[in-house]
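Re: the 416-residue chain
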Amino acid sequence: MAADHVEFSELATLIIGLIALVAGTRIRQMVPALKRIDMPNAVIGAMIVALLVLLAQVMFGTEVAFGTKLRDLLLLVFFTTIGLSAKLKALRAGGRPLVILCAVTVLLLVCQNLVGIGVATAWGAHPFYGLLAGSLSFVGGPGTALAWAKEAEAVGLQNAQAVGAGAATLAVITGALVSGPITGWLIGRHKLSPVAPPQTEVSFAEPQKEAPATVQEDRGNLESILATILIVAVSVLLGDKLNNWAKDAGLLLPGFLSAMLAGVFLTNLVDWTRIQLDFEPIQKGGEVALNLFLVLSLMSTKLIAVAAILGPLFVNVLLQIIVIVAIAYFVLFRLLGRDYEAAVTVGGFLGFGISSMPVAMATMDEVARRYGPAPKAFLLITLAGSFFVDLANALVAKAFLALPLFDMKALGIAGH
């Protein structure tokens, strides 16, 4: 007879998560459809574990609980690496088009949250669920959605993880399915084609390729890895101090946002002092932390709770797609000049606006292979997606939470 409750230790949780991650990677390699929609390996593997947990619950009445301490630390590490990659001086390279893209992105964030809040309110749910089903899932992706879901659950919203996981999973799937075809339709409708000579692509691509090679000669060695661990640890510690200072001042910040801001401060301080950091292990470390955080979080998702809200989630994703397509076509495409580069930028915008940066880059790469190079579009999306999007998303979400509509004190956030 199975036990009524099974609780895994932190080490056992990590082992299960790693097995799930490897399994998800293998399955994605074997199923072409999963590769085409760029479904993260962690999502696939974690859903398998979540299904097994669901079977144990339904068939044997067994409740399964996983460790959470390591998951929470991985969350801080991931957002710290995002902050450490935020080189403010690199944003100047985008010029006026980048300012336009960032401004339209903020417009999108606000609209996505308004749509999510509207759907949540229509279903009689707390508006915080609308934020989770808004920009936090669509622009933010599974990692951001689950990070904020953790904050929501801490103040009493018990189904927050189910909403975040469900909305983000639907976003990943739909974003990959619609961004490419819509971009192709836009190019065909306006009969667009690349006008820049081939060497233009080199002029934009060279800084991206040469900088790491000239700055970092010993990437991957032990000293570089230890230095990365040190700066990430210092950023996490500094973020924790920042969080405490903000709390004492009456400003409540999520721990991962504090860690990201600390990373932004440190990397630009180091850049100002002309000390050179090896960003290769920082990026790799961020990828590892994100994948492990995703798999550890998603595999504990209560699928019964997700199934109960599929109706509003489907309505939400349909409305979100309509909103972003309208903004992309009627605002971004026109402000950027209605040319081929603008169309490819729209493809990247649709990719990260509905799904994720990997989907954005995959969409633009496929469009460039079919119709021709678009180096400015790649530069714009890379610059915006590498830093601005995540920070803007967090700040916009925080601004929404400050509205009287949310009444977070009534949920107990004052004591959080």
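DSSP finds 19 helices and two strands in the chain.
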